Amino acid sequence: MNRKSLLWSFILIMMLVLAGCGGQTVGNTAGVTADQGKTTNTADSDNSQTNSASDTTTDQSSSEDNATTTPSITSNSDGSYVVKSAWGETTLPRSPQKIVTLHFSFTDEVVSLGITPVGIAGSYNAEVLGYLKDKVKDYTFVGNHQQPNLEVISSLKPDLIIANADVHGAIRDDLEKIAPTIALYTNGYGDMEQNFAVLGTLLDKDKEYEQVMSEFNSNIEQTHSKITGTPKVMVVKVLEKNFYIWMKTSYIATLLEKIGAEYSFDETKSSQQQTPGKIDVADVDLETLVQENPDYLVIYGAQADLDKWMGNSTFQTINAVKNNHVLVVNDEVWALGKGPLSGAEVMEEALPFFTK
Hints:
Family: Belongs to the bacterial solute-binding protein 8 family.
Number of strands: 14
Shape: globular
Organism: Paenibacillus tundrae
Subcellular location: Cell envelope
Helix content: 40-55%
Strand content: 15-25%
Main location: other
Pfam families: Peripla_BP_2
């Protein structure tokens, strides 16, 4: 009896163990499936959060990148300033006296504040743009703005160098070894406004800055009020075989739009993209220019090239040419200056052009 009881007890225990193991297996399988389901859901949730975080990080990164291209200025307790530009933060003394400007726009802005830079970079054709010649006195020419002479700049012992962020990246280290350097963009009207505001404060010329900008904005409003409709215009440099069209984001295009014109060339909607090595222009052929077909055309270039295209029968099919809405201008004012002084001259020429 005892053996039988033990045998039956053993058999019963084994059955219970096997049943328990079988139940556990099912439970584990269900658990794994459920856990995998949860894991999958959690992964989706994590991915969603990760993507969201990634997007946020990307947005923040983009914002930070954009912020670095927007110049700003803050004052320190000791009276010095920290200027944030495209090349980072630069500490500068209040009202630096010896300034080198490496782009026409900066020269225009500084001169409009009543200051002559000690060093000025010019073009291949002129040390100082023609419209500024009677406004500057003692200065040193430091070479072409695309390849300024570093030795000459160094000899001037400047307190401040103002570089073009789009042009002077290759010589950044050299410039910063010579003197504190800030790098600014010179593309749209907004760049000019931001740069000019920073320079007004840095150079201790806040009153002069306010006066210049007040007059400039008043001029914009008055010009806008006198232009009826929305003339569609393009600004083009004519070359021997092709054309450079200034882009919609350029200084001249954004200024013309502020006075009431519509800049008809939009690079974002065109197959013609920015020309490599050229800032704010697209290199196009005659066929493309004819397709763009502006109602008003502002052009500049060598006289021989101007004469050639004005006599071209295909060029003459453009609305602006057919309707005698062509204005030949000085590139120093319309293409290079990019400042409040050149801007005032642009408006002076643009008003009668759009209202004749």
